[in-house]
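Protein modeling request. Please complete all fields; requests missing the sequence field cannot be processed.
Requester role: graduate student
Desired output: 3D structure, token encoding
Chains: 1
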Amino acid sequence: MEVATISAFSETGFSDPKYATELPQALANAGLNQDSWSKFIANANEAVKFEWGIGTICCFMSNAHNKKVASNMEVFCHDNQALLPSGLSVSYKMVTEKQIVQLSDSTGSAGTLETFHKLIFTRA
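Delivered output (124 residues):
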């Protein structure tokens, strides 16, 4: 059963994605305390950072920077499970969506891709 989902995304496509640091009420209700949450979210924000290198720069258009984050987040979920209360687990999902905006002169629309890094908290 899903308890909560939090998302991080890059504001510019180049800046690091970031999760909000406030403890969601649903997780507090599930027994997660502020101390454990602070450690968990600090680790999550470190894991979700882009790792820029020659490979990710050259392959930017193929979303290499987000794919590297995805592998880091899978490791993060496994390594940080102990910070969660018994019975609560976390998994990761990367979701890329097309965002459509209308042009200001009403001549059409434009689209961009936005990638969200979701942490999904579930109770068994």
